[in-house]
Structures
1.
Amino acid sequence: MIEVSNLVKTFDGFRALDGLDLHVPKGGIYGLVGPNGSGKSTVIRHITGIYRPDSGLVAVDGQPVYENPAVKRRIAYISDDVYAFLSANIRDMRDFYRGIYPQFDMQRFEALREAFPLDEKKAIRHLSKGMQKQAAFWLAMCCRPDYLILDEPVDGLDPVMRRRVWSILMGDVADRGTTVLVSSHNLRELEDVCDHVGIIDHGRVLIERSLSELQDNIVKLQVVFRGGQDESLPGLDILHRSTSGRVHTVIVRGSQAAITARMTEIDPLFFDLLPLTLEEIFIYELGGADYAVKDIVL
Amino acid sequence: MQSKTSFFDWTLARKGLRRTMPLWLTHLVIWVFAMPIMVVNLGPNVGNILDMSEYIYYTVHIGGTLMAFFFCAAIVEVQNSYLCTARSVSFYHALPVRRGTIFCTNTLLTLAVLLVPMVLVAAMTLAIEYSLGLGGGLIYLVKWLGMYAAMCLFFTGFATLCSHITGHVAAAPILYVVLNFTVVVVEWVVRYIPTLFLYGVSFNGSTRLGWMSPIWHIYTECCPQMEYTEDMQPLRLFYDGSGYLWGLALCGLVLLALAWLFYRRRQSESAGEFVAVPALRPVFKYCVTAGCTLLLSILFYAVSYQIRSDARPSVPWYTVCMLIAAAIGYFGSEMVLRKSFRVFRSWKGFAAAALVILLCGGVLGFDLLGVESYVPQASEVAYVELQSYYNQNFRAKVIPEDPCFDNVLALHRLILDNKETSQNLVYDWYAGTSGSEQYDYDYIRLDYYMNDGSTVGREYYLPIAAEAENDGEIQDVFGYLALVDSIYETPEVIRRAYSVLWDDAPFYQLYYGGVQLAGIWDDEDVLSYTVYADLLEALRADLLEGSLVSNRNDYYYSAEAEDGQRVFCLNLEFERRSEEDPVYRSYEFYVTPEAARTWAVLNDPASYQEQPDWAGEAHSDLLPADNRIGRDTQVIFLPARPRLPVTIL
């Protein structure tokens, strides 16, 4: 389990992480989402032991990560910007990782060769961005990590390769109980693979729940009122509201059962409850945190 | 494979070895040419192992220093370049390897790739020496290796510290080169600036803190030395300055420890910053400001003002130059640190710097420290050396016990009292103003060697006498000349100046004496060894009597001024045979007609190895102008300079 508690990080007076708390349960895929500059990459760099916290705790299975090789040996990290030594090819990097990670699995390296059709003798820096990402996945998966930390992992990969990568990842999660922490802006994709989601903004985690809990806690309500009926929907925690003709679309925080009960009491001409996508949850939750989607009038 | 030791990682080492291969391979090839191949080539011409080892020591001294300076920095730069980009630093610091392991691995690898090949080079050299029949070189090769290792340790430590202070790929080498020469350059500039504005204050280029700029110190103060036997056979070889090199090695370890402390606390996010340690950013800013103030201000002042021929020192203008230079340094460093041109709002720091500069300008302009007007007390002085261009830069050493010592202080005070007049005349002369040309100008230098080991140096360019157009009569306008002469003609000073004739006579022997007409260097009449003793006796008597003139520029040049005239000149060369290298001293005397005892020797044709053209002619017969001696050159004999009345104010 990855535990981050009360983490603070300041860059030249700017508080990038402001007492952040994060809990990534073991054996699942945790999606970390948030607007640009919210602190996603910063928290990931703390979890991988790159940054030293100003204060707070970053621990994996109860052990602090920073300057702890025993813990870091169980973590593989793929950054949004893949690094390889100058003129190093995949084989060079494989040999390097074999030296650094004792559990590096050569059989897996051979097995994954088919999944990643890359020229192993070509310098990695001469590969395309997508190919560099593939190489990074190939090598990282061979390290047999207990924790896989991914920062914008599929950015640059084609749709086929994305599916292949997620398939391999989910295979590892299922077979070995690998814990995956993934930061991405591609919420539709995260929705398909994540079982837990944390929304981060201004250096703090706003919401951290399982995806089902999250989707159960916020619903889209479509309602048509009777003539002369009060349209203010009293007793509901409304996050957003829009109207098209007589149809009112309202984003409401709360469980489906509670909202259904309340709407039955109000008794409109018609109402329906729809589940929100992760993208919609992200937009409407952050709307309450001064990150509302604003209509832009040109 | 993970290393069992926590301070070294073989995987990182292997990677480092590959990355730095072009550098250490080049380093090795250069040394193979500089050592084994050099020994092969020199072997037939070098008769013994000491001479051969001296060559080897010189490779450390000349090439080795630069090699260590460059290759240590280059390899450290390659090894630590990962600290300079966010991508690479994230990669390294995400690896399951402690920072201490990375640091130690990189440092040990740097030293290993530089020094292990050197063991190979030393072994090859030793084998070649033995094959050439030059046995016994092992000890010198081990010392050579030790000295080179000491240099490598220091420069590796220095470069490592620089790379851990900075987070920018270009900053580390800049910092490394600049810091290596900072102390000596700053000392030069700080000691040079007062010479521009304070009357008489001088700087001869010597440094007290040069040891803090290692390359400078090694090249100027360290050197291989050979001791010789009486018959000039090499006896012992040693490197003068090896203690300094061991000190450098120790210093290198301290720098490495310091670098490790910085690295341990270093924030990965500082990659790309010019100064990676936040606490050092203000230090950097104000050091750059001070450096620019010192260096650029001189340049600005020279270009904007001093270049004029009639320019007199102007402290206000120099202060303006300092302020401009400080602004460049201050806001330039702010731009580098902030990576932005919008830095002018942080003017408060510059205002503080400007206040300090104005204060310095005031101190300099009003001589608030009293540097210019300082004349040492006799009780403070161990001895003083007086040098006068008028006396052919002859350096007269005077100690407080000498009767003429008060005259030295009186001369100094007299010069200061006449500062305004003298400076006006000198600057008028520079500017070509009418009236100034009627004076002869002299350069007078006073070096006080104080009891506390310090030195106080002053030099003055003075109008010392009226032109010699007045029938050769010298007009001692300010009284300088009489004081200078009184010092030069003091018997104690003469005995000290010509110590080879008195106190040092037991250690020196005259090995060459010749008579020459000054200016005709290829035509010299060589004196016979048999007259050396008589000649030296005569010289002692005439010198003390003041009838033998030596080192007088006024005579020399006034004689040369007339075409065809030459001054009769006696050249003597002495040699000291000591345990170390022999020491040679040369003297040149312009013989006056009054030097009767010297003339008694020189006039005797039997005193020469070959009979001179003018043999048999009495020197008095050669005077005056129309006397020819078989050449187209007229020989003139200079009169002793008239004694001038000394007036001590």
Note: Residues 291-298 of chain A have pLDDT under 50 and may be disordered.
2.
Amino acid sequence: MDLAALFWTGLVGALQPQNFAILVTGLLVGTVAGALPGISFVNAMAMALPFTYVMEPVTAMCFLGGIYAGGVFGGSISSILINIPGTPASLPACWDGYPMTVKGLSTRALRIAITASATGGLISAILLAVGSPPFAAFALKFDQPEFFAATILGLASVVAIAKDLPVLSALSMFIGLVIGTVGLDPLYGMSRFTFDIPEVQSGINFTVVMIGLFAIGEVVDLLAKDIDLKRSFAQKPGKQITTGELWGLKGSILRGAGLGSMIGMIPGAGATVGAVLAYGVERQASGRGAEFGTGVEQALAAPEAAKNATTGAAMIPLLTLGIPGSAATAIMLAAMLIHGINPGPLLFRTDPSLVYTIFVSMIIANLLMIVAAVIVARGFSTLMKVPPAILGAFIIVLSVVGAYGVRNNIFDVYVCLVFGVLGFIMKRANFPSAPLVLGVILGPLAERYFLTSLANYDDNFWIFFERPISATILALAAMFILWSLSPTLLTRLGRRTGVKETAASD
Amino acid sequence: MNISKRAVRTAFPAFMLATCAFLWTHISSNSAMLDAVPNAVGPGGWPRAMLIGLAVFSFLALVTEVLAWRQAVRGGGDIEPPRPKSENGSTALALIGVAIILVYGFSIPYLGFALATFLFLVVWCLLGKVRSPLTIGLVSVIGTVVLLYMFVALAKMPLNRGAGPINEWTVSLYRILRIY
């Protein structure tokens, strides 16, 4: 089937009434969840998982894709209107979006944010559709050592991205990697860390870990924070923005979208890193750096575009290699696995209609996001009146059902609750929890690829460095690690040089 | 940074170090069988490597935290300004919340999903300072019924019905709701 025919199949699939309706529902759910402080779109996706069990695979992916696209933007609504970021990635929107609201330009700020986010998301979705197939074709050359190297790159980038907390991120990741070894080993079927508990034989399911850490942990933390959710926002809509004025922001939007697309492809980076980096780059590129923080439109547009541009790009490693780079794509992986779909290069051959329906639905989601965002922004004041206690209670119940639904086993609920407590502790102590989840997901993959590589290549440990593609990927992983350690090493080096110079001058 | 947070940040890696030491000798119930596998790495090799990694980073995190704590003490107190009250929140309330969630989860096999969820919604609303009996009643009753329709009737999930008489009560409820 040629590319046009595949796109047509995808378009037909995405526009099927049930798929389209569920996509719109997902968009609205995601935008609302993103807009409500304390409930991130990742929570919403985790809670939506049990609903996908009864859906067709394509419908399930449309639902989660809609929540993902809508949720990444939704956080900016509360950032701009009440100065509370709905999601961490919406923090830059507080810096220049809220000052615009204070000046009575809330509608103008929202329109800039919606346009920039939709454009960024659209560019990223097109990149996903155009870039994934050739990447998947290239990935067909991958053997076990290359997949192992790609998994290691994913793990290395998780640590590298957390530049300010590399040790804590690595610690969190290794906790996940150890949890990933629980259960039967992939080659010999020998039990490890099971302590004769039959339910643990099949391992600790990463979906259960995710639900516990993100949903339950967040709700308990929300309870402890005592956020005032009833603050009113500016009554005056202020001066509207014209199409011409929006066109004047094209440079900032394109810069943000380009940067976000690149960042999104790196496993572990995600929307927050993309948005913050885009803000920093725009500060240098716009020529108005000194005014940033006072309600500069470029400073709002660039991170908004970058934030949503990470959504499509983050799905490239998921669909082509089966490696999720973020918590959101990990949930999508969980949904795919539940429906018996194994993402990876072969998926493009075995089920191209599913892949292209996902592509087209992501494009449609970003187009429809403009409508969804306007509706949610208008009804935002009503939503904010729902007491967080009630919202939190339902999040917990849905999390419990979600954990139970993974295997219809109450043991998974207990595991989920334990991870919920751990998530709360980690959040209060500022320990990053996302590396833990990625460790649980990537650990078993890394082990399987490592062991099968050795089994296929006569226990040759050097095989990973002898094959050009795997050696290149591993070199990239090493560079990532060195890049993350460079500030610490340079500081130490600087201190020592300083000490020596002081001693010499004495 | 306050003392309790410092204590957690120091205790966490220390606990992980102790966990590594314990798990090292408990990878499998039969260690001899684990090492007898004719493979360069074997089923025990990867977990051991991960435990070493965890131990190394736990140790590094522990040292970093202890040094930072010492530096803060020498510097004459906290190295960060105290956070506003709204961000400190109520730890006691959060701990009660954790306890309620745990009780809810662990009571499901005995009370069944329907009753446990109803009670949980009531208690959580009270904990969240929702005092209106009408609101609490509507949220807990309608919430439970909607959840039952969604998951039992639509998603066909075999949610726990409880033990003994509660099982019979849940079945009666399902019959009234026409989902059994």
Note: The CA atoms of residues 93 and 450 of chain A lie 43 Å apart.
3.
Amino acid sequence: MLTIINQIWEISNKAESNSYDAIARNLRRVNTEIEEMGYTVIDPLNRPYKETDADIEANIATTIHSKSKIVKVLKPIIYQNENGQNQLAQKGIVIVE
Amino acid sequence: MGNINFGIDLGTTNSGIGHYENGKVMLLKNPVGFKETLPSVVAYKNERIIIGDKANEQLVSNPASVFSSFKRKMGTSELYTVNGEKETHPVELSALVLKELFNFSLNEKVTSAVITIPASFDTIQSNATKEAGYRSGLREVVLLQEPIAACLAYSNENDLNITEQKKWLVYDFGGGTFDAAIVNINERELKVIDNKGNNFLGGVDLDLQLLAKVVIPKLTEKTNLTDIWNQINDPNNIPYQKLGKYLLYQTEEVKKELSLKEEAWLELSFSEFDLDLELKISRHEINEIIAPIFEDSFELLEGLVKENHFDFSDFERIILVGGTTYIPYIRAELKKRTQLVIDSTIDPTTAVIIGATYYAGNKMSGLDANEETEANETEKAFDITLSVESQTQDLEELIAFKTPALEEGYFRVTRNDGGFDSGEVAFKNQASEFVTLLAKQVNYFTITILDLKRNRLYTKDNIAISHGFYNVDGQPLPNDICIELDADDETYLEVIFKKNTILPLKKSVYKTFSRSIAKGSDDKIIINIVEGKVGTMPGANLNIGYVEIKGEDLNDDLIRGTDIEMNFKISESRDLTVEIYVPSADHEITKTFNPQYQGDVDNRKILNELNQGLDVIREQLALNNDSEDYVLLGKLSKIKSELEDVKGSVMLAVDEILTVNKFQLLERKRRLLYEVDRLVFLRDVSFEMDEYTHQKEALLIQESEFSPTMRNEFNTIVKDEKLFLQSGDKFLIRRKRKALEKLAQTLYFNSDDSYEHIFFMLRLMDPEEFNNYSKVKKLLDQGEVAAEKNELKKLKSICYLIYPYIKDKGRDREMFSGTGLK
């Protein structure tokens, strides 16, 4: 399931950057279905980098400083909810600058 | 005195822990991130110590305070300087990794463990590992050689019954080290005869080589970028550094894909360099990179075999250990050159943990019971004052505490979903930590206080911080906002926005049509939005939005089972906007309702709601007829008569336009139905819960007859059972029960045996209940013969032939109009 979510996330990003409005509605529908299945997909782009955030796996391009932030997301963060409890299902793979 | 039960692989690049439970090995997962392995990396940052994945990610960018591969230095006097100040050493660093692994065990404190060591470790190195174990707080440490652990894992997991002496080769190729060992195995004992290795040979730089020798040349060829390799390795060239990280990640991904396929596409999309292309990489290209590394390892393996005067034919199999052995080329070459069985039946990255845990599960602990109990009871009453803001709108919140009785120590805060970990932070008397939150969720945290030796003194879990549910600055929803939907012969409410969520809100809801609507007809689909409480009768709630999709407005028919998309928005001033889109008919409607909206609901719908309420009352009156609860009976009778009065008034006004009188009637209806709900709520929910439980128990008796599809359906229905049984939503529990009933029906109709009973019931039916009874009679006669001969399959087909002749099968469905949405 995680692979499917990752692919849909990539397709959504491509559709957004290429203004594929024709499939926007379908993608929104698919994303809602994913949410209904208990998954929360988070895109951490532009989030400040914090070493306490265990939900990302950072590839650090420079030395860490107070303004380091996530500049590229290769895979989104995915949480899965079961019996009312969230659990990290996939760490976000990101590049930090 | 019990067994040790905990097995640990303290690896050069990764470590892991297993627990032996009820005769099985359980690989324990990191509560932060839920992985089974932990990078053996430690980072120091100010007062904070970070171990594992988060330390690993700073290995390149912050080398002065991040330490890895210290296993190679165990037993040496090597000292590491932390941030130019204090010093640490391999034993201390290993102890920190071990302590971190103990946190994987949530239910039992780890006091004794089996820790694996390479076969090449001498006495000093072995003692250093033991020392690390004791420093980490273990009271008992048993060492086990890694090749033995690997063999134990393979023999136990495959349930091998070894009755004669055999020799196995262990080929352990990890990220940074290579080890080969000869293991003698017989009925009673496993013993390492000899070993050989290279502490600086591993697959970790394979990705870099693939990037440098395959990916970058191809990229250079296809773009106008030049000198890419040098530029991505220039620490001052930030854009290329970023590109380098991106390329390395994509290279790792394509390498994994090439383990399964002969060729794969490396997809590159990097806007900063205007890159948007695909590169084809073949397995052959990766093989050319791995070949020299493999040759080095094979030379060691071959040397080991020859030095011990063996041939490969003297061995029964080769056991694979370590992540690098996933590479198909390595497996194929080993097979080709040794002609031996290459055993990769279990995950080579966790084989050593599994073996160590098997050993621990059968190794008696030397600790006596008192010591174990004492160790598990160290967390006594602890003086701490915690301060937490339990509700917030911010995505960061502070957890603060004071420990009057503890001068100095460490604390650690983790989020229970695995998304936050403060690491171990030094403090004096008091401290605070900013924690990050998931939006619109209740976030649960655990805080642990440790003494200076990092022994756990206090743990508090389930510290809840709610984000976005309630805040004095934002306006919370006072009630649930729900949509009315059809279920069989009644309607129910499904929540769109939950009570107490903060405005503004928006949500997309997708449903299907439960009946077809012909274009041009006077039939319609109803989208009814109410404010109130999910689980109550729709008519007992305040109508805040109402949209009809009329047949006369359609360009195409609406077909039952097709989709409808509804987008709901509520502004801060409580305006409700409903955007509706029907893809199959390309039909769009948008409507906004302000908070003063009083409802222009169709009168027929109001009548349906009144009928639903009256049905409930009649049912309750019948059920309670013999009881002596006269107060309840009196109240219900009074409401019944008032509802009938409202119904009469509505019927008179069926075709009238909206009037003030109608608003009053609506309000009166809502109040009366609310009262009905209130009176019957508890007993209804309790009744539905009992019915559900009985239905589930009945179904479970036939569990062995479930097909795989039915099992999936069953699991889907009972998933989150605790939550829906506690929801207080009788309609939801009823829907779950009905779904179980349908499964039971499927089982019943699937079984040939059922058709004796079904035929019997058909025979009892009155001729008037059939169309064309003469044909039915003939079929019934044939059925009699089949039943006498016990020809159940034939009887089944006769029942199927009779079924279409039954009159009014769908009468109830037709009478119920509902909303048209489900």
Note: Chain B has six domains: 6-158+350-370, 194-344, 378-467, 480-601, 605-683, 754-815.
4.
Amino acid sequence: MTSIVSSDSVARGSMGDPVRSLKRIASKLWNPRATSPLLLLLLWEIGARTGVIPPRVLAAPSAVVGTFMDMTLSGELPWHLGVSLLRVLAGLAIGVAVGAALALAAGLTRRGEVLVDPPLQMLRTLPLLALVPLFIVWFGIGEAPKIGLIALGALFPVYLNLFNGIRSVDAKLVEAARVFGLSRRELIRHVVLPGAAPGFLLGLRYALGVAWLCLVVAEQINAASGLGALVNSARDFLRTDVIVLCLLVYAGIGLAADSLVRALERRALAWRPSFLEN
Amino acid sequence: MSVANPRLRLVNDSETAVEPVVRLRQLNRHFGKNHILRDLDLDIGKSEFIALLGRSGSGKTTLLKLLAGIDQADGGEFTAPANRTVVFQEPRLLPWKKVWENVALGLPGSEGRTRALQALEEVGLAHRVDAWPGTLSGGEAQRAALARALVREPELLLLDEPFASLDALTRIRMHGLVDALWRAHRPAVLIVTHDVDEALLLADRVLMLDQGRITLDEPVAAARPRTLADPQIQAQRTRLLARLGVTPKGEDRP
């Protein structure tokens, strides 16, 4: 008797009323916040097709998608994208490494702070992009000024946030660790560096954003390859579809980089109460 | 020093008479013009449980820091065992290390985890060994801090108002735990506290610190296990509170 009742109710739950279950699926897939962006996209497309928005002002979304397909299949977009990514990676690697090394020197020793901190605090007030002419004078127009600019841009957020992270490690934890007999090296390894990790990751996130911005500027000044070069030649030929496509790629990579650091944070800072609640 | 419990007296008299674990003579500590500790003399016997009472600013914490080796005296004679450890008012667990890793922190050798697990089991925290400190309740965190102190098998255990921020029920349980741990491991204990009841329930001897001087030093004679209902404890409690400036008005406890 019981088995009949239960099998009946299972059948009703999974298959009964197909319209209602379709609606339920649709409401799960549909996010109301997507409504207005999609509507704007639709208006843009209609505007382009009816000639209200000429292609030399802004290409239609469908044209951008078509260009994306063409340039991906021809290998043009992947190649330029690869060149740009390599530049960012090289610049980031240098900038993060130098920034972290300087922050450790300044954060862990008094003498290091006296030597390192004042010049960096002064330099960071300079608008980074104002250095571009000087970089061109120094490094010419090859890869060096581009990577150098990205490295310098990434250096400051890493330095400032890691230094701040080291200095704001709870003094009470340090005191306790001393009582429990930790040597200076163990203290740095077990207490200071893990305590400064949130600051470092925050700095890394800023650094990624700055690096991307520096890349755009550096490539648009002078480059034969890379996304910036693609944008430059598109500008000369009034190809707004390529420009919009490159903007979308910039945005997509910025987003991907940010979520990469967030994933890194979730792994490295699993102990944090804000992550524990999730 | 005299302790009423005859068994304890035997232990204490024979040991302390020979060599106390802690020996302070004419100890001084200044901060600028502030004279925090003045010509302080103190002996703590082997396995002796001492409670240090005093108002805020009386120098209690300074004395504890000196004994812990966190701070240095400005003059006087100072002897304390190298193997000493502290339970602070806040648990001070490293939030990025699991509970057992906190307990094993700084232990030499590969048996850190085994020893940590033993200590955590002893304080009743065997079920939380792999938890992050951020997920512990106040009482659990303080148990972990006790385990971290115990695992070092200290000769001198310093407790700096360890239960002040716990709720009343948890505090009662922690008193029982500290008492049991002390009887099992027999370290010398100095507990700094505001709580006269806590002092009388746990300690062999109560000290009172006022303006950097020990103004009272008397044994707690009541037999163990103690309850606050014990008339001997009641009488001593009233006397100590009066010394601390609390009049018995409005003080009626069953």
Note: Chain B has two domains: 6-83+154-243, 96-152.
